[in-house]
Amino acid sequence: MDASHAAxxxxxxxxxxxxxxxxxxxxxxxxIPLFALAVSAxxxxxxxxxxxxxxxxFFSLLWRGGFGTAFSWRNTLxxxxxxxLTALAVAIPARIGLTIIGGExxxxxxxxxxxxxxxxxxxxxxxxxxxxxMAILAATVGAGWIGLAGYLRHxxxxxxxxxxxxxxxxxxxxxxxxxEGPLRDPGSLNKPSTPPIGRENMLSPVPxxxxxxxxxxxxxxxxxxxxxxxxxxxGFAARVxxxxxxxxxxxxxxxxxxxxxxxxxxxxxxxxxxxxxxAGIHGNANAALAxxxxxxxxxxxxxxxxxxxxxxxxxILFGGIAAAGGLIQRRMGLPDAxxxxxxxxxxxxxxxxxxxxxxxxxxxxxxxA
Length: 369
Fold this sequence. Notes:
Layout: H1 3-7, H2 11-50, H3 55-67, H4 70-94, H5 103-121, H6 127-156, H7 160-180, H8 213-231, H9 233-243, H10 245-250, H11 255-282, H12 293-303, H13 308-323, H14 325-332, H15 338-353
Helix pairs in contact: 2-15, 3-4, 3-13, 3-14, 4-8, 4-11, 4-12, 4-13, 5-6, 5-7, 5-11, 5-12, 6-7, 6-11, 8-9, 8-11, 8-13, 9-11, 12-13, 12-15
């Protein structure tokens, strides 16, 4: 046997090396966000100590209010459901290299559109048909709204981060104008809103599970989008475009169409979140639709590394944090916005931790135990 053949690695060794590299990468994607959460908890503990409050009491109440009881879990899952959808509205465009932060606008307009079509149809068609029409219109309006930011990026090279954020403010203004003007329910004196869609048309929790339908649908969409982006030609083309748009154009990929489609998918997810808020929570469209789910979804998507599957547990985590706000306010005398400060701390530390990817020796391909 000559030297060249003797030095050649066995095929099994190549497979093992490739599997090891993938495992190290997966471990890095898990370890660094966990490290960011630990650092955030430490920094927030210092903040609490400076205010004269006990960090252990705070985190104990945080656990109890978000995950400690069956009621806490129901509240957490209710708050997590829209976060799954709004996080997907950030994660999918990110796979093609876009940063969309205006999902709040699609949530608001999706909810408004759902309520608007329900007003003339309520009592005229079966509930299942009414809810279907509401969901389809909400997704379509959301897709068009965020898809507009994608189109502006492709056709006029307008920064999608800025345009989507500005479009969110426009959407909120449209909501306020509509619920205080053309579609205002005369009976809504202190809290302007559209007429109710009717209690008989509201979504109940999943029978036997007491889980909101929004979460079930969100998980199903997350799985479908994960398969779309990882197992199809469309997803491969989107990833190539996100990695190098110029190379993608040189290979003949329809970059503009991919950008618009990914942003439209994102908008449809956020629009559905608005539909579920109307059909499952409020029963009408009002200013409470602008609850900040679109902005919290940004944090969820970043912590999940824009992985549609990872979005689900991260959304549940932040749903629990939000659900515990009231208990913390009552027991510790802290404002309800304290949990928002915790979320902001996590976001800042998370952004700082981005510099660690690819730099830690332990996770490098040639690392030795």
